[in-house]
Amino acid sequence: MAFEEYFKEELIFFLDTQSKKEAFEQMTSALYEHGFVKETYLQAVSEREELYPTGLSAAEWGLAIPHTDHIHVNKPVIALGILKEPITFFQMGTDDMEVDVNIIFMLAIKNPESQLWVLQMVTEIIQDSETLEKLKKSSSKQQVISIIEQFCNKVTS
Q1: 146 — phi, psi (to 5°)?
Q2: Which domains does the chain have, with CATH numbers?
Q3: Tell me: the pLDDT tens digits for 103-143?
Q4: Pairing of strands 77-90, 12-15
Q5: CA nearest to 27, candidates 40, 42, 39
């Protein structure tokens, strides 16, 4: 599966929420509705985020990569949330350093062996400030998909 195939228009969100809880509920509701995750996914991803925060700082961007065990996933996909206003997450590897997150990459990985590769690809996006800038300024789901495809073409060429 090529990396850009993990992204679906119906799972691109322009979120105007005030909390992680609201963002997680909106994103996982669509993941569940479209059959990508099981009913247990929301609780599992929320609990995992409390124990193992996924916030990251990259240049001027705050990002989060919430995910959980493959047993809560039906089909692999990445939901992408672009936040109107930042939401506070804890920095990965800490329980007290805060990060104002602008973009959420919510992973639903079915095959545990592919998780490392998917995380590496997401990390490459995070390290590409030009791509992050384009994502943050995007105004349509189609535009987001196009940006991801352009990034993938650049990385694989």
Answers
A1: -65, -40
A2: 3-156 (3.40.930.10)
A3: 999 999 998 888 888 988 998 998 898 999 999 999 999 99
A4: parallel
A5: 42
